Amino acid sequence: MTVTAETTGPAPPVVRFAVTPDRYRHWRLDVDGAVATVTLRVDEHGGLVPGYELKLNSYDLGVDIELYDIVQRLRFEHPGVGAVVLTGGLERMFCAGANIRMLAQSTHAWKVNFCKFTNETRNGIEDATEHSGQTWIAALNGAAAGGGYELALACDQIVLVDDGSSAVSLPEVPLLGVLPGTGGLTRVVDKRHVRKDRADVFATRSEGFRGRTAVEWGLVDAAVPRDALDDEVARRAHEAAAASGRPPDATGVRLTPLDRQDEGDTIAYPYVSARIDRGRRRVEITVSGPPGAPPDEPVAQGAGYWPLAVTRALDDLILHLRTNEPGLGIWVLRTAGDPGRVLAYDAQLRERAGDWFVNEVRHYYKRTLKRLDVTSRSLIAVIEPGTAFAGLLAELALAADRQYMLEGVYEDRDPDADPATLVLTPANDGDFPMGNGLSRLRSRFWGHDWELDAARGRFGEPLDAAAAAELGLVTMALDDLDFEEELRIVLEERASLSSDALTGMEANHRFVGPETVETKIFGRLTAWQNWIFVRPNASGPDGALRRYGSGRTGDYDPERV
Amino acid sequence: MSTDSRTGAAPAPTGPLNRVDYSQRIPNNVGLAGDRRLQRALEGWQPKFLDWWRQLGPALPTKDVYLRTAVAVGRDGWAHFAHVPMDEYRWGIFLAERDPDRKVHFGKHKGEPAWQEVPGEHRAALMRLIVVQGDTEPASVEQQRVLGDTAPSIYDLRNLFQVNVEEGRHLWAMVYLLHAYFGREGREEAEQLLKRNSGDLNAPRILGAFNEATTDWLQFFMFTYFTDRDGKYQLGTLKESAFDPLARTCQFMLKEEAHHMFVGTTGVERILERTAELMREHGTADVFPYGGISLDVIQRYLNFQYSVSMDLFGSEQSTNAGNYFTAGLKGRWMETRREDDHVLLGVTRELRHVEGGEIRTRTVPLLSALNLDLRDEYAADCAGGVRRWNRVLAAAGVPDRLHLPHEGFNRKVGVYAGHHVTPHGEVVDETTWRAGADAWLPTPEDRERVAALMIPEYEYGKFAGWIAPPRTGINDQPVEFDYVHLADEGLV
């Protein structure tokens, strides 16, 4: 087996995912009534890491973090926006995709994590179109190459300028020896229904296709002359906005800066905390329940609304740990608080689902749970006295790879505590579907409908350890004599296994049942891409990725594997 | 406590001694009284153990037996003698004293402090090692279950029972580790130790040699000499373990194992003494007609027991053994006294194997051949015992000698498996081997002739005609001491 040496670029920085619009370096957001315009104009010298220039509107993680922030703010801060136009701020170039020098100098882990985040952001764009009444329309004012075209593919509609030169293309295979891994291959055939042979031609032709052919093949929805582009896009945007169910007069909820305290190896947000144990290569994450009853008007609490505050903190924590703490292979998930209060919020999220703000909170929590599902860490839920795995918080336990539940109480430490319970609600049965389109409960009991029905029959009921074990909701229910020792051994054992094998194993077990565009992207496309990334044909000294821009193309080993 | 005027009071135990309520029954030095988890586990397990003992332990009904009981780890405490009804034997839990400064002294963790708890990384492997070791302990009790019916003397009967109760205690020792350190899975494995039974078609013991029936006392002595000695060597490797509780448990077990060796060594020795006596008296090698066991039959029993015991060491080349060593789970025999780096990367040794119809050697990494390393130590030890036996023959003026067969003889495991090697080390074809087998391994007829001699002798101080009495009794008691009180005194 050939092992490719990791590229020795500058050490990756600690990445912060929290940004605010006043600090965008690469994007501009203009809101005009029901239509927002998001313009990409990358600051060439604004790379996250030294060593490359972001020419031709190419992007790196920093550019994408801003885009993610825009997608989020449009949904929460701009309830009146029903259509979003995505366009480029350079002449004749919409976006050239991910910066190749950046990719060439990055470690494997950095590339993988970068792709995961960009994929999640593009899925978020589709989620906004589908569930938020914010239809994204790509206005390609110039060439859209590679990741640039993949960005367009995430939009509901693509309008390409027909100027005789601007093309859409996926040049990764012919030029770089890698895949268009941000959903490109998948969306061309699965979303835009481009015929297989044409997709094959398209993805091996570095110059791509222009105007008429691009429309004919289904690569774009329309190709219009330069002087008609704005009108065509505006027409489509207004049409989409008119069909949107978003409230034109509602006041948005400002996503105020996160209250995050980092102290040594602890990270604390108002309802989420993480304690890092580097020696044991794990992090103990605790999500706390609400301080009281839910408010009459959720939107009035804004970013302080408990489910939103929890979600934002979790989202930031997941991204932080994933990017900046790759050595912490095990996440131990706990909850804390009064399950009754959690259930009150759980009910409100369902009863008020028609409210634009509550709808956004629900979908944001859904997306955050999906982030957890595709996180390459072992997730272990610990259910013990004082925890509040109920309804939406029980999703954290169900998202985990294993669930350990204490039967009874810790006799020596707190004999008078109430034994832990687990409470399922309809929230676990469809409110927060996974990427495969199934609820976590349904995924858990895939092929065992009678077990699913048995669990459904107990919604709302506090299930003690015996009942939870009986229903198959926990991996192990142990009393206090065995619990801590078992957990210690399990976690140590886990930490001793191959991190790569665990990542692959977990990703396989977590997604049962049907394939969707999402599961294909995170499964098939990503797995192949990550394999190709470590192969010499891409990243070896003579590989295409390494040689890009050197005036020489890659020398390939012709042998098929 | 059962002492009486003849045996006197037990010596006062020294060393830490801890008794919980039911601990009159479970002497221990593991703090059982303060360990709720262990108490619960043992409460669940002990009745099952007693059931097992009643069903599959010694079949001969006895009132009581003069037994050694370990009541503490100190000098006197571990060997406390008294007449005890066997099912009231106090199976205790003892670990050798802890050395707080003990370090791991081999493998990749060399120099680190010994482990006081199971590292998660090694849970599965450690549990497997303990289960395999634990599985052999009750197996031999099951194998020897009916031997009491044909005991050559009350003295030998007592020794059999002593071996049996101590194998029972060794089971306890392994069960203790499973209960104390391996959680629920450990408890389940502990129960399985009682569910598998020697020779049971559906749930046999794990290792082959422990599913062979012990047909007679000659085989019993051979078993305690050769097969229990394998146990001694396995314990010796576990005594080196980085997992300190396992190391300390095995260290203490080795003390008791020495007695089992003694029973085997002296048992065979006494048979030889009697055989030589009869050979001289009657001027013939065939002493069966005179109530003795012929030397050639003894040699065949030896060949059999030695070869099946050699199989217990596993394949000469074993990835597992190397992994266990490197991980610190299992050392070599006398690891601390070996003069090398105790890591063994790059070290090689010679391995004999069969190739092209002859035995050749090739060089292999030592790490991959640690089973062989241990087996060689064992074989050297066995040879010492055979020399001792031969001195008995020489002293009696008999020119014949016993020999250990070649390491490749009658092997079912490892590099010799599938080949046919004679006791003298010649590689032959299957036909030749089969033709010679009756001369090398006990035949049904041999076993029948030995079995015919197995008539119980329960009178105090008397011995069956095929075995000489020992020079001395147990614990300074006379040979004719009433070591066992049978339930039905009418048998005497």
UniProtKB/TrEMBL annotation, chain A:
- Answer yes or no on keyword Glycoprotein: no
Among SUPFAM superfamilies, the record links this protein to:
ClpP/crotonase
* Keywords linked to the UniProt accession: Lyase
InterPro entries in UniProt = Benz-CoA_dihydrodiol_lyase, ClpP/crotonase-like_dom_sf, Enoyl-CoA_hydra/iso
Q: Does the keyword Transport apply?
A: no
State the Gene Ontology BP annotations: fatty acid beta-oxidation
Q: Hey, what's the signal peptide range on this chain?
A: none
Residues annotated as region Disordered?
238-257
Q: Which GO molecular function entries does the Swiss-Prot or TrEMBL record give?
A: lyase activity
Query: Cross-referenced CDD domains, in alphabetical order?
Result: crotonase-like
Which NCBIfam families does the annotation name?
Answer: benzo_boxC (TIGR03222)
What is the protein named? Benzoyl-CoA-dihydrodiol lyase
* The organism of origin for this protein: Nonomuraea jiangxiensis
UniProtKB/TrEMBL annotation, chain B:
Annotated region Disordered: where? 1-21
Domain of life per record = Bacteria
Q: Name one GO cellular component term.
A: cytosol
What Pfam families does this protein map onto? PaaA_PaaC
Alphabetical UniProt keywords: Dioxygenase, Oxidoreductase
A GO molecular function assigned to this protein is:
dioxygenase activity
Gene3D superfamilies from the xrefs? Ribonucleotide Reductase, subunit A
**What biological processes does GO assign it?**
phenylacetate catabolic process
Q: Could you tell me which PANTHER family the record lists for this protein?
A: 1,2-PHENYLACETYL-COA EPOXIDASE, SUBUNIT C, PHENYLACETIC ACID DEGRADATION PROTEIN PAA
List the NCBIfam families hit by this protein, alphabetically.
benzo_boxB
- For this entry, the protein name equals Benzoyl-CoA 2,3-dioxygenase component B
- Provenance organism: Nonomuraea jiangxiensis
